[in-house]
């Protein structure tokens, strides 16, 4: 499905480990004042002065988290950075550095790694994070990417998952569900391609959904937006496993309940069309589909006026007493207990 | 070869991702004052005040970096931490936190992961590092471990690879080559076992070598030892890829040459015996065998008296002008140009 635009194949073994590292890391820039020493020693050296340091890490495995049949390597590199940067954003912190480790089987030529690292480099520039270290090795099967993201924040800025109060409003950025439907479209096209490799897919009706799957963005802007509105969320999490699952995390850690309103869910018109085409209930996907990388947070009720009508944010519910449980209030005004059916990497 | 002492097999899919994470991380303790928030949010939060932050990361792949035929999972967990902590020690910094990500295929029962995490927990206690985050997912094949180690140091304490001067002395901690020969012994026993699974190996003559391979230690003590001697190395690196390869790194980055003396190399009597048994030249193994996790550093000549005769350190050579090159001076007093033949994960 992905056309091989570059038929050249240079074996990575030719360069050796250190030659390969030099080659792959030569485009990385150091822009953060907190980076004293990046790649090139036993470890990187950072200086955060009086800021707190935020650290998160993710492991991405071919065949589990991504499928190279429809995921171009450049997009994969970009997305791998985004996924990790998103976790830093979810703490209301500013991403500053990442380390990038990869393991590849020998079926990957140097040109493929160049594509992957072009995506990583592009994301590092876009999010202004310095690539300060990593590891490059061989794998027995497929491609493995491990990224650790580092960020900084003043102590009073940091938002945890456990600060939601009973009367808080539940807010989400952007729209949800599109990344999951993008994946369904790509999976369907993969099946078509396997049956008929000459078919040319017409993906015009699905561009937004596919972009949300293949090139998601982390909401680095939300920290600035909220700061300008003089709002500090009481709790925050990013939506990687699905809205439902993330609401459960906030509720469990904050010891509160929640009412989520079906008619408030922010979904894109293209998403609705494609759910109808696939004959899937759009609400089910919107609350269970993962990989949106939007931010979900709670704010005090008195902040309502500050956020009302802001196109970046949608109020989708409110928190309640823990004993009231966690519910979806449907359009028909019935309450359904919410279940976490989020994406679970271990049962794939 | 490794006896299955625990025939119970609990499928990890039964617990689900979050259940598994809760189970595996329940024994992790937070002891470092710099850890404000460990596992349980989108990211960890650390506070290093006026210290600099040191970051290093490593990826360990089954079949490339370790062989579960002779590597017990508990030892593997321990070693995975040690390998990363060693990089922090090589900056003359104090290790403080680690993140641990793992990917496992479904052939691993929960009991196997418990063994792995018992080793990780043991090492975390031994080196006093807090496990502050990670990721747990499934792999298509085998076990993958990705660890990021974090440490702290005052700016003036940090030792880079590039500070060696022309007249500096070259010093190594402990002894070298043993881990490599331990691996040879284990590989031989694996072959024997494959031919005759009932054979009982007698490994008494190899205990030190095998321990160096299966349970190496990071030289966390060297920072304190050098501090007490009032010595600050001019450059430092840890020996993961082999002495020869690491000397090349120091020389290249410091723009100096080096004379390494064969008769000064610190090697263990058991190592010499086993090299003879395997009919391998002990000097070749001592300078090219990897995974010793000792520290290699340079000190100013005027520090000679402070370090002379100290059982923790061996002066094995001295730096020279860059134009003189990098040589091994043999017992027969001939100079041989040193080649980096270190362990290269990409050509395995």
UniProtKB/TrEMBL annotation, chains A, B:
Record keywords: ATP-binding, Kinase, Magnesium, Metal-binding, Nucleotide-binding, Thiamine biosynthesis, Transferase
Pfam families: AIRS (PF00586)
Chain sites annotated for binding Mg(2+) 4: 42, 56, 87
Residues at which Mg(2+) 3 binds: 42, 87, 238
Binding-site positions, Mg(2+) 1: 57-58, 135
Residues where ATP binds: 134-135, 161, 240
InterPro entries, per the entry: PurM-like_C_sf, PurM-like_N, PurM-like_N_sf, ThiL-like
Family: Belongs to the thiamine-monophosphate kinase family.
Protein purpose: Catalyzes the ATP-dependent phosphorylation of thiamine-monophosphate (TMP) to form thiamine-pyrophosphate (TPP), the active form of vitamin B1.
Name of the protein: Thiamine-monophosphate kinase
Source species taxonomy: Bacteria, Pseudomonadati, Bacteroidota, Flavobacteriia, Flavobacteriales
